[in-house]
Structure formats: C-alpha cells, structure tokens
Amino acid sequence: MLTKNRSYHGDSIDFKIGVEDVAKLNHFAAQNEVTLYMVVLAAFKLLLFQYSGQTDIAVGSPVANRVSSELENIVGLFSNTVVVRSNIERGARVRDFLAELKRRVLSNYSHQSFPFEEVVEQLNPARSAMFNPIFQYINSPRETLHTPDLSWKLVQCETNVSKFDMSLMLTETSDGLQGAVEFSTELFEAQHIRRFVEGYKQLLGNIVDMADKKILSLPTLLREEQVELAAWNDTHREWGADGTVLDLFEQQARLRPDAVALRFADQSTSYRQLDERANKIAHYLLAQGVKPDQRVAVYLDRSPDMVAGILGIAKAGAAYVPLDSSYPVERLAFMLEDSNATCLLSHSQLRRLDLAAARTLYLDLWGGENVVAHTPQRDYGPQNLAYVIYTSGSTGKPKGVMVNHRSLFNRICWMQKEFDIGPAERIIQKTPLSFDVSVWEVFLPLVTGATMVLLERDKHKDPGYLYEVIQKESVSFCHFVPAMLKSFLQSRKHFSLDSLNTVICSGEELTVQLQNDFYTLLDAQLINLYGPTECTVDVSYWYCDPLHNDNVVPIGRLIANSQIYILNQDLNALPPGYVGELTTRYAGGYDLQFLCYCQCLY
Predict the structure, then answer these.
(1) In the predicted model, is pLDDT for residue 84 greater than 90?
(2) Distance between CA 146 and CA 495 in Å, rounded?
(3) How buried is 506 (Cβ within 10 angstroms: 0-12 exposed, 13-18 middle, 19+ buried)?
(4) Which of 127, 291, 452, 514 is the most buried (most CB within 10 A)?
(5) What is the DSSP pairing of strand 477-480 with strand 502-505?
(6) How does residue 284 score in pLDDT terms, banded at 50, 70 and 90?
(7) Radius of gyration of the chain from Cα atoms?
(8) DSSP state of 110
(9) DSSP-assigned beta bridge partners for residue 176
C-alpha cells in the first residue's frame, strides 16, 4: 500500500520470448502493417485492461527524440516520453484495436519533441506524491547496438528502484525478445508480477491466433490457472440422490420420539409432539388444496407453532414464505401478493392484514383435534421449492429468492458433517425468519437429533438475555452477526459459558479486532461464513485463528457442491487476487443488471 511519501522501492522480473514466437509476432505485424513495438504495446494495454477492468489506458513510452538527421551524431540526452492513450472497446475486434493503436502511436510520435513536462504543465492534473502524473505504466522498447569494431552485451543492473508502478522493457536479440518487468514493491508482490509476465506471454500468442475475435473473448486465465480453479471448485459430495431435510427430521422423530426437539420459555416439546403437530398442519393444508411448489406464508413470532408450521408446510409439499411481524403492512401485503401465497399461518394476536387473497389459519385458535396426526403421503422431491425468502432489494422493492429442497438438503448435510453436529448439541434459534440464517437455525438441530433453543420475541438483540439463555440452557452452538457479537462481548468483562463450543459469524464483515476480542473472552471456535441468500445462505467458510496474522479475516474455502468464479464485466473468469462481479437472478421477474444466470465456460 502506498504511503503519502512514496519510497520508489522496486524489483524486477526477467523473462524471455523465444525466437519462433518472435518470428510469429513479426509475421503478424507485417500482415497488419504495424511494427513489433505496436504489437507488444497492444498486448500490454489489453492485459492492463483485463486485470483492472478500466477501459481508459494510458501508457508512457520513451522516445529518442532525434527527429532530424543533424541530431544523429551529436552526443547528448535528447530523450522524451510520449503517452499513448487508448479507450478500449471490449466489443471491438483485436485487429481493429491494433489498427487504432497504430494511428495513435504515429500521431503521438509526430509530436515527440513536445516535452512531457510541458504536457503535464498544460493539462495540470491533480498532483500527488504517490503517483506519476498522466500515466503510471511505461512500455520501454530497447534496441541492441551494432558497431563494426566493438561487441556489446546487455547487462541488467538491479537497482531495487522503480520510478513507475510498472515498467515493461523489451529488447529484440538473436535469441528472441529479452524482457523485464520492473515494479513497485509498495504496490505489487513478486508472485503477482510473475503471473503478469506469464499472462503477457500468453496474450501475445492469443493476439496472433484470435485477431478477428472480440477483445472481450480473449482468455483471462492461464492454462494452469484453469486447472487450478477447476480443482478448487471440485467440491462434489453425495448426500443421497432423493433426500430432503424432512426425511432426516422424520427419521429423528422415529428414532428418538421422546427426546427434546425444542425448548421455549422453559417448556419442552418432544420430537414426537413436534412431528404430530406438523403432520396435522400438513393435512389441513392439503385439505385446502395446497400443492407442491405453491407458497404458504408464515406470519408468526418465535414459538413451537412457528417451527411446526414450517415443517407442516414442507410435509404438504409447499414452500414457506416468512413474513416478519415488524415489517410495515404495505411491505407484507406486497410479499403476499408477489409470492402468490395460497394460505397463511399466523396467531390471532397478529391479526392486522387484509388477507382477502389468502386463507388464514390461526394456529393458537386451532387445536387440530379432528385432524389425523400420521405422516401424509409424499408428493414432492428434491427439485421442488422449499422456501421463498425476501431480500431488501437494491431497488427498494423486496425480491423473493427461491430455494429448492436439493439446495437446502446440501446445505444442512454439509453443516452436520463439517461441524460434527449430533444429538448432544443445543442450538439457538434467534434470527428472524425473514433473514436467511434462520433457515439453518431451524433445520440443523431438527435433522441431527439436537435441541433447538427458541428465544422469546424481540429479545434476540439483548446481550444480557442472550448470556442468560446460553448459560441456563447449556447452549453449545449459535450464530451472531458481527455487530451483535461485538455488543455481546462488550456487555461484560468476564464470561462463564462452558457449554458454548462453536460460534458462527456471517452477514457482515468480521474484523480482525473482533476476532481477537472473541478469543480473549471466550473459549470456543469462531467460524466466519460468507455468501448470498441466493446460494442457500452461504458458499464459503473459514475457521478463525487468533494466530492468523493477515489484516483481514478470510472467507475461506467452499462448502460442498458449491463453486465460485470471480468474473470480469465480460463474464470471463479472473485469476486469484482480482476483483470481479456476480450476476444472479431473483424470483418475480425483476430486471436487475442482466437478470440471468450465465453459463460459465469453466
């Protein structure tokens, strides 16, 4: 990272382009009526474009500035720097870009006598001691000297200085092109420059082979990087071809019917009781004509009925749509209409909506005495919807994210296996249903035979209440968003939570300071999870380590059956260390960016 007073510390990486490759470049240059210098400059600019995402690329180039024959035999320093600026159109052909670059180079070189310092003076750009004005990258072609009576040998001096962010120097010799990249060690690590060099060499070949292709189609990955990324993304795991989380819950209800499934307000509900209540709700919904993939809204505060309602909806083959009682009526009405919810499960004290479009079952007033409690016949599978959860939406309008049973099953099975969750665990459910973390808080304990500890309404942000519940209920596994974890850790000087062994953090950036504070006060494992709602809550995880010395907490490795590719604006995969974008799709048909999943060639 640059400081206000730049030191100009630098290093260099040498490389070579063989005779055969240079012959191809020269042949290509002749075919396109350009010079070899123009070809290598084009590759340099295109590589900067690929890595930075910027289309306005300015590169400095030194010139001899001996424009008249009278200057040829005069000893002295006449050199100057010209700046070749290009506005790269990603949809243009490579050959057309090269032709435009030729025009700009010839135009700039016709004015090479105009001092660069005067250019800076006239343009008067914003000055900074951290940056060279006008350009930060330079392409420096070097010529081999030939005399009849003397032999010459180029010697590269290691000065450990870099006047620019990066300098590319090339010399044509009998052995091909001798190259060196000089770079600022304040900005770049040597490993990244080595990768840049390999990318440059590959791009030179691609320019020749893909001259009539669009710039956006030029590969951004080295061949070995394609193999490496494929290996990173090889996360295949088999959990069972047709399994669902409901299968796992019902298995627990059969194996451990009298075990405690959930705790709420000092009351216990067994697996048998919860399963039978969910079965009755499912039979009611089926009697109302609910079919697979239809939506049933859940408008309930935390309670055993909330959990039974979610399970009952799943048993009926429908998808649950969580509605938060803290939301304005207008927002809730929109979500009901947008999701096409056919029914709504609620409690009578929450009766405040105009629900003309949906049938409502108030579970606190409905005993279900006349409804059978056996498991309904299954009429859905992994491909069917499990839930639709609404995000806040970047446009201000809530957007529903649809997740099927296969994705949910994968997520829960991965958590069970990775974190070794079993019947001994006691897991807090404190996240409102409108947030995606609630999905695994509900299903993870129930499919593993563990006990879910439900927090009372509106108390999930009270550090004192949380501490009391964790201690009283012997909670072993819980989730915090970083802001709430910070408040929790600051709420007292000493912690006595012997049962707590795992804390999951997600939803916001987890800072190194917060990680260190956690390990100072608690004897538990902190795990950082990362991912969007569209990917079934998270796609990566990291076991935090107080001895990890980076200035950021990593987001780690991929969860099972997930892939991550960092793509540029042209949807080409980028190498490690570069910033890209993710394009995704919401339920409801909203136009946002491209609004489609893109088939990735990788």
Answers:
(1) no
(2) 78
(3) buried
(4) 452
(5) parallel
(6) very high
(7) 32
(8) T
(9) 173
Q: What pLDDT score was predicted for residue 403?
A: 93
- Count Cβ neighbours within 10 Å for each residue of 244-269 and write b for 16 or more, e otherwise: bbbebbbebbeeeeebbbbbbeeeeb
Q: Are 193 and 185 in contact (CB under 8 A)?
A: no
Total residue length of the chain: 602
Range with lowest mean pLDDT among 34-38, 297-301, 595-599 = 595-599
Percentage helix, strand, coil, to 5, in the chain?
35, 20, 45
Q: Give the dihedral of Cα atoms 363, 366, 372, 377; nearest 10 deg.
A: -30
Dihedral pair phi/psi, residue 118, rounded to 5° = -70, -35
Answer for the pair 491, 483: CB distance below 8 angstroms, yes or no: no
Q: If DSSP codes are grouped into helix, strand and coil, which group holds residue 28? A: helix
Q: How far is CA 388 from CA 22, 310, 322, 353, in A?
A: 58, 12, 8, 20
372/284 Cα distance (integer angstroms): 9
342, 295 in Cβ contact below 8 A?
yes
Q: Which tokens hold the place of 254?
A: 């059969």
Position 567, amino acid: L
- Per-residue pLDDT, averaged over 120-133, amounts to 57
What is the enclosing helix (H) or strand (E) of 250? helix 245-255
**H runs (alpha helix) in 492-596:** 512-521
- What is the model's pLDDT at position 437? 97
Structure tokens at 586: 């919401």
pLDDT band at 496 (very low <50, low <70, confident <90, very high): very high
* 8 in Cβ contact with 136 (< 8 Å): no
- The amino acid present at 588, given as its one-letter code, is G
Class of domain 10-67+75-142+153-219: alpha beta
Residue 485: count other Cβ atoms within 10 Å of its Cβ.
24
Alpha-carbon span 34 to 38, nearest angstrom: 6
How confident is the model at residue 44, as a pLDDT?
Answer: 93
Q: HSE, CB side, 13 Å, CA atoms: give it for residue 38.
A: 26
CA angle (324, 325, 327) in 5-degree steps: 70
298 SS3 class: strand
Considering the entire predicted model, what is its pTM?
0.82
Residue 552 and residue 528 in contact, taking contact as beta carbons nearer than 8 Å: no
Residue that is written with structure tokens 């405040």 in the block? 352
Cβ 421 vs Cβ 411: under 8 Å: no
Torsions phi, psi of 139, nearest 5?
-110, 120
Are the CB atoms for 403 and 385 separated by under 8 Å?
yes
pLDDT digits (tens, 9 = 90+) for 86-101: 999 989 999 999 999 9
| CA dihedral (209, 215, 219, 222) positive or negative | positive
